[in-house]
Design a protein that fits this description.
About 5% of the residues have low confidence. The N and C termini lie far apart (80 Å). The chain is mainly alpha-helical. Strands 1-2-3 form a three-stranded antiparallel sheet. The protein folds into two domains: 32 residues; 168 residues, no CATH class. The chain is globular, with a radius of gyration of 26 Å.
């Protein structure tokens, strides 16, 4: 009987020890700091193409933006275009000190949606060229045009060179998009624009060559 009692006590003690270790481990894991969100870089390209190159690259950028947006859902278009407007305006306002040099604007601890929008801008800036080098100013001017268009006429649903009439300012709003819905979407764009401006204004400005703050 005594031996059985001792065995039970030893078993209970071992169980309590395992339980205590688990509680301690879980407590440490719960108290650990969450992993930091990744940083994301936006490359600033100075200048803006002029003359024939300016004409062709402006349309190339409009085509690239429009044809990509056609594949996106309505709210994604308004939210991402709004974010890009705010972000690019802030970046261009801060890029003056870089002169004709390229630079990098790094956003730390970017949320998933922020990072997606910035990576989209990087892609559009690179692909939306024809005869000239990438230009952040050209990206911004084309994006401002697209923002104005979708606020007036609804989301992009027709590729750039397939638009009839050619000037979307004369085109009716997309069927099913009521004036009230357009107001809601414009508000969504405005909120995203403020978010983009906040991140663009707070991004680290780095030299492209050294990746040191400038």
């Amino acid at each position: 009987m005594n031996q059985t009692y001792i065995t039970l006590l030893l078993g209970a003690g071992a169980g309590l020890a395992v339980f205590a270790r688990r509680v301690f481990k879980n407590g440490r894991e719960a108290g650990a700091k969450p992993a930091a969100s990744p940083s994301v870089d936006f490359s600033y390209h100075p200048g803006e193409p002029e003359g024939y190159a300016g004409f062709t690259d402006h349309h190339a950028m409009l085509q690239t933006l429009t044809d990509d947006l056609v594949e996106r859902d309505t709210e994604w278009q308004f939210r991402t275009i709004g974010f890009a407007k705010g972000f690019l305006n802030a970046v261009l306002a801060r890029a003056g000190d870089l002169g004709n040099a390229q630079g990098v604007f790094r956003v730390l601890d970017a949320k998933e949606g922020d990072a997606e929008a910035i990576e989209w801008m990087v892609l559009m800036q690179t692909e939306g060229t024809d005869t000239a080098a990438p230009s952040t100013s050209n990206l911004n001017s084309a994006l401002q045009r697209v923002a104005s268009d979708i606020c007036a006429n609804g989301p992009c649903r027709v590729k750039y060179w397939d638009q009839i009439p050619e000037d979307r300012d004369d085109a009716p709003a997309e069927p099913g998009i009521s004036p009230g819905r357009l107001i809601e979407l414009a508000s969504l764009m405005h909120d995203a624009e403020r978010r983009g401006a906040l991140l663009g204004g707070g991004a680290q400005r780095l030299s492209l060559d050294t990746l040191q703050a400038v």
